[in-house]
Amino acid sequence: MSDPSPAPPEPNAFRLSVLYAVVFVEIGIAMPFMPVWLNALGLDAAVIGALLALPIAIRIVATAPLVGLIDRGIAAPRILLAGSLVLAGTYGLMPTGAALGWPVLALLIALNAVAAAPLVPSIDYLTLGAVRRSRRLDYARIRMAGSIGFLLANFAGGAALGAMGERLAVPLLLTVLALIAAGVVAAARIDAPPVPPRHPEAGRPALPRVLWFSIGAAALIQSSHAAIYAFGSIHWSTHGIAPAWIGTLWAIGVASEILLFAVVGRLPARWRNPFVLLGLGGGAALLRAFGMAAFGDRLGAVIVLQVLHGLTFGATQLGAMAAVSRFAPDGARGRAQGTVSSAGALASASATLMTGAAYQAGGGPLAFVLMVPLAGLGLCLAARAAQAARAFSLHSTTIVGQGAGQPD
Fold first, then answer.
1. How far apart are the C-alpha atoms of 337 and 71, rounded to whole Å?
2. What is the 3-class SS of the chain, one letter each residue?
3. What are phi and psi of 279, to 5 degrees?
4. Could you point out which of 39, 81, 133, 256 has its C-alpha 20 to 30 Å from the C-alpha of 141?
């Protein structure tokens, strides 16, 4: 008798954590400091707004098709490597593009956005696949590395800009970080979960209703952050909250997210159900929106409301990933992962436009209170997803907290 085939290697949680960390450090530099760099170039405000809106529009249309390439046999690590290399190239060329004129810079930003769109969903795809193969792994603990990297990048990026100046520091740091990410992908040799072969005559597997409801719930709940993301700092500043405290408030939000990722595996299994997590995120988002509308000018109240970010973002993210892992059919997992990101980008972009008009018309309270129906609709869709899940005979096993030793 021949020897049995060797068992596949145990997925490496450390490599996945490092990958999250380097990619989110890059995001933690680009998100707050790219607008600063564009402003340092002396561009008009209208041009800056258009250049910042361009990546959002591209993410909406490009993420699902690009991540869906995984279902067609293109390995997620290859997408990560190619995307990181293109990111490095476009970041490196942006100073030259800016010197040639904003249309050239816009082209580079568009290419950059296409390359960046599938990165985080591809890492999520790899991590969910690893967690499904190994009961010892915990998605939340692995994903936590990304949040830590983002927080550290916010602090380090500000120091780097102060030392080197905006025009040099931003493109240089982002180019180096993208190259580091490419090196991590190449060196880590992360095994991608196998994609089942598809019969030539078989159509694409459909995403089930329960997953569509879950994706919609997550997108709406996440979009309820739009008013805080766009106008939170402005609102706090105009009501006398010091800049140092504004930075601390944002750090409190990310820290609460990290704390949730660290401890969620210790919760009873029934609390780690995808619909419970989405429900917690939606309920906290409702409370946070009402609280910001009523008390968003008072420092003590805002500190408490920022702690809710651990649920409004963290629990919603975990619920969405649990739903994808549980309900996405084989052969459509990449498409499902990309759809989560595309739907979230579309909902957030729409909410941001609505928020801008509301803030101009009625200030912070009106902008914040308009986030209430978004959170409420998300909460309703989470309940509808739970109802639809009965057809799947759902039990409480999820990808959240598997490695914590809690019974399922």
1. 11
2. CCCCCCCCCCCCHHHHHHHHHHHHHHHHHHHHHHHHHHHHCCCCHHHHHHHHHHHHHHHHHHHHHHHHHHHHCCCHHHHHHHHHHHHHHHHHHHHHHHHHCHHHHHHHHHHHHHHHCCHHHHHHHHHHHHHHHCCCCCHHHHHHHHHHHHHHHHHHHHHHHHHHCHHHHHHHHHHHHHHHHHHHHHHHCCCCCCCCCCCCCCCCCCCCHHHHHHHHHHHHHHHCCHHHHHHHHHHHHHCCCCHHHHHHHHHHHHHHHHHHHHHHHHCCHHHHCHHHHHHHHHHHHHHHHHHHHHHCCCHHHHHHHHHCHHHHHHHHHHHHHHHHHHHCCCCCHHHHHHHHHHHHHHHHHHHHHHHHHHHHHHHHHHHHHCHHHHHHHHHHHHHHHHHHHHHHCCCCCCCCCHHHCCCC
3. -65, -40
4. 81
Q: Cα–Cα distance between 380 and 214 in angstroms, integer?
A: 10
Structure tokens at 191: 């095994």
> The pTM is what?
0.87
Mean pLDDT of 248-267: 91
Q: Quote the pLDDT of residue 51.
A: 87
CB 275 within 8 A of CB 382: yes
The 10s digit of each residue's pLDDT in 161-201 is 777 776 788 899 999 999 999 999 988 777 766 666 655 55
Encoded tokens for 335: 């498409």
Tell me if 353 sits within 8 A of 286, measured CB to CB: no
Cα 57–chain centre separation: 16
- Judge contact between 318 and 139, C-beta under 8 A: yes
Residue 240's Cβ-count burial label (10 Å; 0-12, 13-18, 19+) is exposed
